[in-house]
Structure formats: C-alpha cells, structure tokens
Amino acid sequence: MTNSVHPHGRHRAPLPPVQVPAAGPPPPRTHHPIPQAAAAPPTPVGHRAAARAAKPAKQRDAFFDNAKYLAIVLVAMAHAWEPLTDHSRAAEALYMTVYTFHMPAFIVISGYFSRSFDMRPDRLRRLVTGVAVPYVIFEVAYTLFKRWADDDPAQPISLLDPWYLTWFLVALFVWRLTVPLWKIVRWPLPLALAIAMLAVISPDIGDDLDLQRVLQFLPFFVLGLCMKPEHFQLVRRREVRVLSVPVFAAAVLLAYWAAPRMTSVWFYRRDSAQELGVPWWVGIVMTLALFGCSVVLTACFFAWVPRRKMWFTLLGAGTLYGYLLHGFLAKGSRFWGWFEEYEWLHKPLGEIFVTVVAATVVTLLCTPPVQRVFRFAMEPKMEWAFKRDAAELARERARSA
Hints:
By secondary structure, the chain is mainly α. 61% of the residues lie in helices and 0% in strands.
C-alpha cells in the first residue's frame, strides 16, 4: 500500500570543483595507508548488517489505522444510540444506517490483514495470545460485571456462549483458522455467501459460540481476504467520494422509512429467519440484500477515510482495546438506568450529548496509556506457555547475526 522511497534518491553528490595548483614546486607526496575495513571485502554477515541498517523500518498504513479508528467510533456511537431508538425515529434511522456497515467494514479490514495467515507456529501463537486469551479474560470479566452491575449473581460463566461484544473474538479466531481453505477454493466469496444463507435458515445451529454470527458475517471476512491494494485505491477515486454523499443520504432516508416497518435485529445477524418469525426464503433474501447494502456503504465509508496521518491515526492500533473496554460503560448505562432516569437524554440535545460522550470515551480507551495498562489482557506474551521449534530458533539466529 505504501511506497518505500529511498531517503536520498538516486542523485550522485556533486563533484568538488577542480583546483588549479599554485605556481612553485609541487608539494611532497605523502603515503596514506588504506584503512583495513575499506580494503577488505565485506563479509556476508557485514552484508546482512548493512542491509538491515539500510532497510527502512516497516511502517503502519495510515489509511487502515484511520479506518479502524473511525469504525470503532461508529460502533460506540451506535451502542449509545440503541436506548434512544424506542422514542426517536431519527435515532433509529441513524442506528440502522450505521449498523449496516460499521462491523462489516471492521471485518473486511480484519480479513485483508489475515491474507498471510498460515499454520506457522509463531502465527498460531499470536492467534492464541491476541484473540483466544482475550476472549477468555473478557468473557469472564463481562460475566462478573453483569453479576455486580445488574444484581444478577446467577449469571453463569460460559465460554461456549459469548456475551455481548466477545462474539467478535470467537468469530475472528474461527475465521483465521479457515484462511488456508479460502486460499485454495476457486470461488471463495460465493461459497461464503452460500454458507451464510444456509446458516440463516438453520435454527438448529443454536447459540454455542454464537455460530450464527460467525457464519452470517463470514462473507465480509472472505471479501477482505480477496481484496488487493488496488481495490482500496479504487474507492478513493474522486468520483466515488462524490457519489458516496448522495448514496449515504439515500441510505438514511431509506432507513427512516424502514424504521417503523422492520426490526433492526436483522443487522445483528445472530438469529435465523425462523427465530425471527418469517418464512425461510425471507432469510435468504435479507442475507443477500443486507450484504449488498453493507458492501456499498462500506465502500462509501472507505472513500472518505483520510489517507494521510491524522491526529487519531495512532489510535488505530488500539481499536480492540476501545471495542472491548467501552462495553462495560455501554452495558452499565443500561443496568443503572441512566436513560430512564434522565429524560433529557431523549431530546435532540441529549442525543447529541450521548453521541459526543460515546465518541470521546472510546477515543480515550484507544490511547497508548490505556493500552499499556491493559496489555496484559489484550496482548499477553505468554512465552512460558509455548515451545520454540527449530525453524523459529533458526530465524532468531539469522536476525541476530
């Protein structure tokens, strides 16, 4: 995505001006011994060291960090709007519009950065420490929080039944394990869509590991796997940016019309058609329709994501922190009855206030100080838990040579 630019270009340094010797006898010739380091040919180790010194450090792509931060802000804002949707049609319309694309955009990016995943031991370890372990920690933490904040001591701890936001970690774990399969099939995206359609008409899947969501959101992950850098360049074209404005406006108007006529539960993708009380074929139609709408609005979202480094670009590396941590406040506000106690929150100024608070809180939760505090839960090292294979030791020796 980013182009590596040689720090000094390829221009030669200008030659020094020719000096005309002054009249008189020539100066005595002196002998300057050649330094040993310059005279001896460089060793292979020297070549590797020089190559490492000349190679620029790998930099994060500002576009994707910006996209992740903006997507996680939309996630937090939508969670804050949810209690307002019962009394405000406008809030419901915005809620449905944002829910159409905020998680799909996040999942597409996750799929795009999972393209290189294989069963190499170091990558499997990162999958365990960066996804599976945080899932266990936050599943337990959310359950204990609900017991305390909601006065529900009987709430069970179950690693098979993800609660609230932890479903995404289960889904990401499963999706990444299937990456090698999607690399070898001929039509990965149509196959993923077929699986999603079969899932939405299969009520017997049940709630274990939130498999309905895992399977119904699967096409977006596979779409990210299939994407290339030029696809993201395509949506950054000026005509796409211009066209995205009326498309977004039309989506909000459509959502405003649909708000009293359909349930927003379809956007959660956690239930089958039969569980929602509609014929099976409606589930298939809704799966395809929502996928198409989500892809269009996700493309519009990417079209307006800044490509340059912004003040919030650094926060893109901490979006998982913001995602998991803001859930305590989002759920706590419901457990403690804030939206029922303060009626002014349902007024236009109150809705704006709630939106600003949600964006501010999730922004703070993505900052480096918060990352340092909670890194033990999000990105534990756990070197004591894994064996080191011969290939990894060889790579370490090569890097230290």
